Every structure is written in structure tokens, then in C-alpha cells.
Amino acid sequence: MSTAPPISADRVQKFIEDLEAQKKIVSKCTELFTTLTNHFTSLQNSLSQKSQSLDAKFLSLSSKFSQTLDSLSQRESSLPDRESAAAAHIETLKEAAFAEFKDPKGSAQLSDTLKSLARRMDSAGLVKFIVSKRKESVPLRAEISVALSEAVDPHRLVLEAFEDFVSQKSGKTLGLTDKRWACGMLVHALFPESSWKEKKGKGPEFSRNIGERAAEVVDRWKGQLDGEKEGLTPGEAVMFLHMVVGFELKERFDEGFLRKLVLDFSSRRDMAKLAAALGFDDKMGDIIDELVKNGKEIEAVYFARAAGLTERFPPVSLLKSYQQNSKKNATTILKNGNFSAAATEESKNVELNSIKAIIKCVEDHKLESEFSTDLLRKRATQLEKVKSDRKKSSAAAGKPQNKRSHSAGSARGSGPPAFRPTKAAKFSNVYPPFNRRNPAPSAQQSPAARFSAQYNYVGQNVFEAPTAPYASAYGVTHSQSPAAVTQQHYVHPVENLGVSSFPTSGAYGGQTSYVAYDYGSAAPSCSNPLRVPNSLDSVT
Where does the signal peptide begin and end (predicted)? Predict the structure, then answer.
């Protein structure tokens, strides 16, 4: 009986190691097979997707091809009608031009002048006339569209106006603001908002040559805008985008540049519709999100309505968010300004402007049923009243106070009356005759009875009588004539008054200054050295 050889532990260990190695090889092969299977599966899916995409594109191309053929056939069939319409239009323009030549004076009406300039294709004259009628912008806007239809080539007429504006802009010519406004009126009349949607799927209404010239003008314009230190104005940004949309020049500019213009000047009324016309339909959601992040919820409402994204961006929630943010801003301004008068005024202005913006947005989008504005209107009325009262109080405080003193003869004050010195009459003779200086006496009260208080005559001419208010206080009737004053005789000559430091020479006809004198204490003296009878010295 044979016995089996004993199995050593080393052989068993080696066998187990071989099995482990085989296991690793099998698992690695399995992983490779799985990877290859997944790769080929993804390739098959990708090929199937590309095949489906190619089939869809082929179908789309076939559909577009058929539509293009139909459009070409329609355009070809409409050529006779369009030719006859163009001929009739040219005949109408020719008759109007002949009528204008026969009557060179023309009409002074606004529409007739605009049509005349459009028929002549006078772009410079048209811009100049529009600038001169800037105060009549409302009727002017309606008449420009009608006038452009009278031009032989409206697109070339407007483009020539823009070429002149861009060339003058590079030369820093004066009056560019008015010309920019006039060019904006022209491009709005040539490409109204209703034509932006109608352009989709239609060819351009201008020739290829006009399109190339427009591209050159807009390229030069963009170069000038990039080099300006002051930056682009909102009106010019809207006008630039309007030209890009109207002449279909979007492909010539970087999309980021156009989007930056839209975001920077989103507060303009036409910007939301311009953004939709530029083809930002797929990216309007991102634009609205960026507006909301920048605190421009009001603009976001306009953009959402223009893009048809009101379900994604509800206008009411945007308005409420804007209202809360405006309240926070007003409170922050107050706190940062330590509740000073200037900070309070600025805070109220911010609140008032935000309320007006909300009310305007609600009215534009007919949201009165969803967002009540009654409380906002009351608050706006209160802020307007406070602002008006503050202006009135500041205006009253800024007025100079009347510091004129009142005389003793009036019932409003005390002290000597302050009469303005009158100009002295000029005589050829320094000492006129006595009868001219002292007319014949009339039966009146004595000077003591009439003038009971001291009176200062500063440069008074020929005993000029006081004005009516002061005369009533003295009890006499006002008169400008010297004859109305009682002839007064004096004892001492005028030389004796030298101690009063006033001039002692001169006549009543010249500029003479008198010392303050008490008519009740002594009789005044006369400049004439002749003495009068002593019996009059007692008249006091």
C-alpha cells in the first residue's frame, strides 16, 4: 500500500498567490471590457444624436429653401406692382418738386418745410431746421416720419445726417448736443419701434451700398466713443443701438459690448425693446438677474415685460423688493449724515423719487389691481408739501430786512425825519434877487406853531416842503412851491453860523447845508446881509 507524498505549505502558498494573480487579471479585464462597452455606447449615442441633428437641420434647410423659393417667386411676381407703385411715387414727388419750384417762397408751415427739405435730400438743412424747431418737439416728431416718406431715398438722407454728425464730433464742433438730438429724431422716425419686430424674417429695405456706408459710419462712431474721457451719454447710447438695429449691424460688433451698453443704460425707456430687437431673447433672463442684483428692479420689470418673462420675474414682487431697498437706502443716508438737515433732505428726495418711479411703472404696465398705490400717493403728497414749505421758508429767510428808520413826525418811530437830499437847482447868479428867494408873505401860522420840534435840513433846496406823510404830521398841506412857505425874516446874517462847522457861503439856489435849528428858541438868520425891522424879531 503506497502512501501519498506530503503537501508542503510552500506549495499551497504559491498556489494561492497564483490564484490571486489570476483574479486580478480577470478583474482588470472586466474593467477594460466595461470601459470599452461604455465608450462604444457613448459613441453610438453621439452618432445617433448627430444623425438626428443632421436630419433636423436637413429638414430645416429644406423648409427654408422652399420658403426662400416661395419668397423669391412672390417678390418676382410683385415686381410689376412695386415698379408701378415706385413710378407713381416718383411722379408724385416730381409734381411736388415742380410745384415747389414754381412757388419759391414756399409755405411757412412745419410739415411743408420738412417735406421740401426731404424732397431736396438736403440732410444738413433738415438737421438745421429740426434744431431750430426744438421747442416744438411734439408736432415735429409726428411730421418727420411723414416728411421722410417724401424723400427719394430716406435711408441715405438719414445716413448723410449721421455722417455729418460723426465727422463734426471728431472735430469738437460746437452745437453737437442739438445735432445729436436732431439725428436721434431722424433715426426714430426712420426705424420706429413697430418696424423692429417686422424686420424678423424679411430682407433689408435699403441697398447694399447704403448698408456698407452705415457700417463704416457706425464703426467710426464706436471708435470715437471708446476714446471719449467723459463717457457715453444715455441718449447717444440709445441712438447708437438704434442705428445698429435699424441697419442690421449686430454681427459687426462684439456681443459683450452691446450687452454692456444695454446694462449700463437700462433706465432708458427704449432700452428693453432694443435689447429684444438685438436678439438677446435667450439671454434676457441673465440680463434681468444682473439688473436685480444691481438694485434696478424697476428696469427689470420693463425688461421682463418686453421679453415675455413675467412668470419667471413677477412684476409685483420686483416692485416690493425695490420699495424695501429704497427705504433701507433712505434710512442709511439719515444715519450716515447724523440726522442733519442736509441728510434729511437727501433722504426725503430719495424716497420721493423711488415712489414716483414705482407709481410710473405701475401705470405703464396696468398693475393697479395687483399693486395698490394709494398709500404711496399720499406719502408722495406729504413729501411734496414738506419740500414746498422748506423752499418757501428758505426763500423768506434769504430776503434782506428793511432797516429804514422812521421819522419823529410819523406815528411809527421817533427821532428826526431822514429825508433824502435833493439836487440843488442851478442858477447863473449865486445870489438871486431877494424877491425870488423870499416871496411875499402869506397869512399862515407862525413857524413856532407849525414846527414845534427840532428839524434837520440836510442839503434841502429852497426850503423844500416835506412829503405828504410828514406834512400831515405837522398840520400843513404839502406844497412844492416856495410861495406856500411863510416868508421868514432873520436877524443875523449867515456868516454868524460858522461855529456849526457847516459851509457859511452860498445862496438858497445852490447846494446848501443847514445846522439843526430850533425854531422855537430863536429866529433864524438869512443869507442876505440886509436886516429886516426889529418888530419881526419877536415872531416866535
Answer: none
